[in-house]
Backbone:
C-alpha cells in the first residue's frame, strides 16, 4: 500500500497528485539510450495493463519490515529510486533515463530469462515521495504494473513491491508455468527487497503473498506473441553478425 | 498504519444497476471500503455497477490497482463496470492506463445509467 505524499506544486484545479503521473502517451518513445543498454522492443510499443495480456492474472505482494532502524518511508523510497538498478540481481539489468525514476521516463530492461535474452523496458507510470510504479509495454513477459512503495506500520517502515500482471502471450505463459519463469520473477523481487533492507543495515525477511485474481486465459491475447520480446531479442542477437558486417556496429 | 480517507456509499437505482459514490482518496488504504461497497452493491440481480468519481480528490497507482481488482471481481460475476464524474485529469489517467478500454466512461449519471440499461 502507498500513502499520499505532501501536496504541493500542482496547477490550480488539479488534484494534488497530478504531477506524479506520467503524461498520456499513445506509444512509447525512448530518448537518449544510456551507455551499455540495448534499446529494443520499446519504441513504438503501447503500454499494457493487467487486463490485456494472455495468462491468469496474479497479484503478488512482497514485503520486508525494516526493523530496528529509524528510517521513514520517504527516505526509503528516495534511496530506492536513486539506486533502483543497483538493487536488481545481475541477470536483470535496468537502465533508467538520465532523469531517473520520474513520471513518464522509460527504464530499459536487458534481462535474461532461463538463459534467453529479454530486451524490453518499463514506463514510470507514477512516482511520488513514498511510491513509484512501472507499467510494461507490449512484448514484455508480463502485461501489468509493478508498484514499489514504503509505508509506516506502527512505527516501523515496511518496504513493499506489489505486482499485478498476467503473461503477455502463450510463449511467456509456457515459460512462467513450465520453465521456472514465475519463480525467477519472485526471486528477483525478493532479491530487490533484501537489497533495500541491506542498504539500511537490516537483515530482513521478505514475505510473499500471492493471489490469483483471475485464473482464466485471455485468448484474445494469444496474438501478442508477434511482439514477444524474447523471440525478438534472440533474433536480434542472431542477426548481430550481419549488422556488424553492414557496418551497423551491432547497435 | 495510515487510515483510509475515503467514503463510499451505495445506491440501488434499478434492481440491475447499483451506483457507488466515491468521495475522498483512492489509494491502497481504500481496499476495505471498496470491498465493502462492492459487497453491498452486488446483489443476485445486479448486472451493472456504476462508479461515481465526482468527489474523487486523489488517486495514486495503488488506487488504480484496486480498480483492476474491482473490475475483475465484477467481470467474474458477469457484471459490467461503468464510471462517470471523472475530471479531465482522471480521464487522462484512465486513458494512460488503458482502463477506459475496460470500464465505460460517461459524462453524467444519467448517461451511465442509460448505458448500463442498454447493455442488458
Residues:
Amino acid at each position: 500500500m502507498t500513502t499520499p505524499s505532501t501536496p504541493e506544486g500542482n496547477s490550480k484545479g488539479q488534484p494534488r497528485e497530478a504531477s506524479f503521473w506520467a503524461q498520456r502517451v499513445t506509444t512509447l518513445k525512448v530518448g537518449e539510450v544510456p551507455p551499455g543498454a540495448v534499446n529494443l522492443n520499446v519504441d513504438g510499443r503501447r503500454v499494457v495493463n493487467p487486463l490485456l495480456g494472455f495468462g491468469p492474472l496474479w497479484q503478488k505482494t512482497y514485503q520486508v519490515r525494516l526493523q530496528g532502524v529509524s528510517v521513514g518511508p520517504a527516505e526509503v523510497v528516495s534511496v530506492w529510486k536513486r539506486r533502483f538498478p543497483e538493487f536488481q540481481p545481475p541477470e536483470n539489468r535496468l537502465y533508467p533515463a538520465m532523469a531517473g525514476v520520474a513520471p513518464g521516463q522509460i527504464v530499459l530492461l536487458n534481462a535474461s530469462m532461463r538463459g534467453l535474452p529479454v530486451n524490453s523496458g518499463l514506463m514510470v507510470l507514477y512516482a511520488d515521495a513514498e511510491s513509484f510504479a512501472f507499467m510494461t509495454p507490449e512484448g514484455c513477459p508480463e502485461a501489468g504494473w509493478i508498484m514499489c512503495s514504503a509505508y509506516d506500520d506502527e512505527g516501523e517502515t515496511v518496504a513493499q513491491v506489489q505486482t499485478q500482471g498476467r503473461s503477455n502471450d502463450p510463449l511467456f505463459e509456457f515459460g512462467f508455468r513450465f520453465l521456472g519463469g514465475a519463480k525467477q520473477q519472485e526471486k528477483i523481487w525478493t532479491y530487490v527487497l533484501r537489497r533495500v533492507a541491506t542498504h539500511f543495515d537490516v537483515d530482513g525477511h521478505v514475505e510473499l503473498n500471492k493471489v490469483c485474481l483471475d485464473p482464466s486465459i485471455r485468448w484474445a491475447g494469444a496474438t501478442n506473441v508477434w511482439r514477444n520480446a524474447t523471440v525478438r531479442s534472440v533474433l536480434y542477437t542472431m542477426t548481430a553478425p550481419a549488422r556488424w558486417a553492414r557496418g551497423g556496429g551491432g547497435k | 498504519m495510515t487510515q483510509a480517507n475515503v467514503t463510499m456509499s451505495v445506491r440501488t437505482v434499478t434492481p440491475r444497476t447499483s451506483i457507488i459514490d466515491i468521495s475522498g482518496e483512492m489509494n491502497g488504504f481504500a481496499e476495505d471500503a471498496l470491498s465493502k461497497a462492492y459487497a453491498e452493491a452486488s446483489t443476485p440481480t445486479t448486472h451493472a455497477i456504476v462508479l461515481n468519481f465526482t468527489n474523487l480528490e486523489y488517486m495514486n497507482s495503488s488506487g488504480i490497482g484496486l480498480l483492476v481488482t474491482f473490475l475483475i471481481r465484477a467481470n467474474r460475476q458477469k457484471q459490467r463496470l461503468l464510471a462517470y464524474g471523472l475530471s479531465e485529469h482522471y480521464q487522462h489517467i484512465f486513458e494512460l492506463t488503458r482502463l477506459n478500454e475496460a470500464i465505460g466512461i460517461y459524462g453524467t449519471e444519467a448517461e451511465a445509467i442509460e448505458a448500463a440499461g442498454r447493455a442488458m
Observations:
- Helices of chain A lie at 73-82, 170-178, 181-199, 229-238, 240-245.
- Chain A has five helices and nine strands.
- The longest helix of chain A spans residues 181-199.
- Chain A has one domain: 38-214+221-246.
